[in-house]
From TrEMBL:
GO molecular function, one term: beta-glucosidase activity
Annotated Gene Ontology cellular component terms: cell surface; extracellular region
Residues spanning the signal sequence: 1-22
Keyword Hydrolase: yes
PANTHER family recorded: GLUCAN ENDO-1,6-BETA-GLUCOSIDASE B, X8 DOMAIN-CONTAINING PROTEIN
Protein name: Glycoside hydrolase family 5 domain-containing protein
Xref: Pfam families: Cellulase (PF00150)
Length: 398
């Protein structure tokens, strides 16, 4: 099986640790993710969300792409996003990637890109053109692109990386809760008591299929497009029969219309052959790739880096039992959860089991739309997840 190791977010300084992907020739390739560009995540671009510190619920608080657009509205939201798109990724960065022999990038995009809905209408105008620019630029530098549908309507996992942190409940103007009821409801309404879906939302499933059709129609023949991933990280409680049916339908579309493209499917946090080897027949899985994501930060805390390496080796040994090529589409070497807003905007989903050191919060990278926060304040709300380690959540003075 082939193994692909790109990183979660775009960071040129880390490219030396790069990705390993065994190409058809058996030679390793280098790759990375362009995270936070087309799908906002507060931990990747925290300064984009400074403007919401100190705000109340009724004033509008952006915690993800959906609420970002909802809080700012179509005009201001689009102005900020256009500035972000222009400054977060530039041709100079492609030149730097090419100099470092990067050969493939994974581009997370939202299902609103070609057919915006709700607060995305107007707010995300211009996204299609910027993606076309990226593909054209990638082609000039001979860099392949995996189009990754990172966010789908209804949220496939409840995380902010799905476009909306589902479900976020405001308990008052300054406090909210999320992680206690973070459900993936793309497939349907989740019943937490029974641990199952009340029913399957076929409209959402069809919307996601139509999203792939749109990608095929718009960019399917673009020379830079190498692969498509129809949904990123559907959560572990996904109805697997429904998910497999969706995967089969999407792959059939791709195979009929653009058979050269690789069909990449996420393992829904079930990295084992027993779950996935029946997805396609033994004689019918050409250009099929299983994508698994591995993060040390969420594993059991280890005191020795060698133990992490041993654990990682044991996990990746599972690849031999998967009949498809295996890509590790996201990974990180961090062994802690100290990154600002890793668990969401002013939120956390981990208890206080690790020590973190504080550094100055970065200034905004935006050219014209940057906003800072009150750096003299002792702390700034709004606040989520009471009782969890505050070191991982609100901004504090110093």
């Amino acid at each position: 099986n082939k193994i692909f190791f790109p990183m979660k977010s775009f960071a040129l300084a880390a490219l030396a640790a790069s990705s390993a992907y065994a190409a058809a020739s058996g030679r390793a390739m280098v790759g990375t993710n362009i995270g936070g560009w087309m799908v906002l995540e507060p931990w990747i671009t925290p300064s984009m969300f400074y403007r919401f510190l100190g705000k109340t619920h009724s004033e509008g608080v952006g915690m993800d792409q959906y609420t970002f657009c909802e809080a700012l509205g179509p005009e201001e939201g689009n102005a900020v996003l256009r500035d972000h798109w222009d400054t977060w990724m530039t041709e100079e960065q492609f030149q730097q990637m090419a100099d470092r022999e990067v050969e493939i990038v994974r581009l997370p995009i939202g299902d609103w890109t070609l057919k915006p809905y709700g607060p995305y209408v107007g707010c995300t105008d211009g996204a299609k053109d910027k993606i076309t620019w990226l593909l054209d630029t990638a082609q000039r530098y001979n860099i392949k692109v995996l189009l990754d549908v990172h966010a789908v309507k209804g949220s496939q996992n409840g995380f902010d990386n799905s476009g909306i942190g589902n479900r976020t409940i405001w308990t008052d103007e300054n406090n909210f809760s999320h992680w206690e009821h973070a459900f993936g409801e793309w497939m349907g309404e989740w019943d937490n008591d029974s641990g199952s879906y009340k029913s399957i939302n076929q409209d959402n499933i069809n919307w996601a299929k139509d999203t792939i059709q749109g990608l095929l129609d718009t960019w399917g023949e673009h020379p830079a497009v190498y692969a498509i991933e129809p949904v990123n990280e559907p959560w572990w409680a996904s109805d697997l029969d429904t998910l497999k049916s969706f995967y089969r339908d999407v792959r059939a579309m791709m195979k009929e219309q653009q058979p050269r493209l690789k069909f990449v499917f996420h393992d829904s946090f079930h990295f084992d052959g027993n779950t996935w080897n029946d997805l396609f027949a033994d004689d019918d899985h050409e250009n099929v790739v299983l994508d698994t994501h591995q993060y040390f930060a969420w594993w059991e805390k280890r005191g020795d880096i060698g133990l992490y390496c041993d654990d990682y080796g044991a996990v990746m040994n599972m690849a031999q039992y998967v009949k498809y090529d295996v890509w590790v589409g996201e990974w990180a070497l961090a062994t802690d959860v100290c990154a600002t807003w890793l668990g969401g905007f002013n939120d956390a989903n981990t208890d206080a089991n690790r020590e973190c050191q504080r550094v100055d919060c970065p200034k905004s990278y935006l050219a014209t739309q940057g906003v800072d926060f009150d750096r003299t304040a002792a702390k700034l709300g709004p606040y989520g997840s009471p009782g969890l380690n505050p070191d991982h959540a609100p901004i504090f003075e110093g």
